[in-house]
Design a protein that fits this description.
Layout: H1 21-39, H2 42-49, H3 58-77, H4 85-104, H5 117-136, H6 149-175, H7 182-185, H8 188-205
Helix pairs in contact: 1-3, 3-6, 4-5, 5-6
């Protein structure tokens, strides 16, 4: 309602520096998004407290640390226009993501509702593709008077970096199966091998 659903063209949308209600609302929305990036840093704190060190990956740290600092620039100089599209998409993705986290925190009985975990990474990859294509079109426009092009270079660069990092995560998590529980990483062969090993030990004791 601050722009993307009410007036923006999804092409060359410049920053509105007026005091119009819509422009002020967009600036306020950008500040809320910026502030949310600091709240999300609590994820890392929770991982440390729960001793889930395996979840504190380079992707996680990079993702959560770079956003607050780059978005300070966004709120300070360019709170609006086409440079905020990625924030819109990212907010939608995070609603889905934290809904998943919320359900998973309710206990084992809710695991049956979390069959769509694998699709979370697909959604995130789609996000970065959308952002990259949206920002990329700026560099093919003949005349777009967007006030802070440097901001678009920053968005494009970390959009591409995140795309590469999440593709790498996808490969290791779902192709190689490295994020699955160890008992399931090698499929039935591993389970059967473990069962056979346990049987051998049992027979030895008898």
């Amino acid at each position: 309602m601050s722009g993307w659903a009410a007036g923006y063209s999804y092409r060359c949308d410049i920053v509105d520096y007026s005091r119009s209600p819509q422009a002020v609302r967009m600036a306020w929305t950008c500040w809320l998004y910026y502030f949310s990036k600091f709240i999300e840093l609590l994820d890392t704190i929770f991982f440390v407290v729960r001793k889930k060190n395996s979840q504190i990956t380079f992707l996680h740290v990079y993702h959560h640390s770079i956003m607050p600092w780059t978005w300070w620039f966004g709120v300070k100089f360019a709170a609006g226009g086409l440079g905020t599209f990625h924030a819109l998409v990212n907010s939608i993705v995070h609603v889905i993501m934290y809904t998943y986290y919320g359900l998973s925190a309710l206990g084992p009985e809710y695991q049956k509702y979390l069959w769509w975990k694998k699709y979370m990474t697909t959604i995130q990859l789609t996000q970065f593709l959308m952002v990259t294509f949206h920002i990329g079109q700026f560099f093919f426009m003949k005349d777009c008077p967007y006030q802070f092009p440097v901001f678009l270079y920053v968005i494009l660069s970390y959009g591409l970096v995140f795309l590469i990092l999440f593709l790498n995560f996808w490969f290791h998590a779902y192709v190689k199966g490295q994020r699955l529980p160890k008992a399931y990483q090698n499929g039935k062969a591993h389970q059967n091998g473990k069962a056979h090993q346990n049987g051998s030990v049992k027979d030895k004791h008898h």
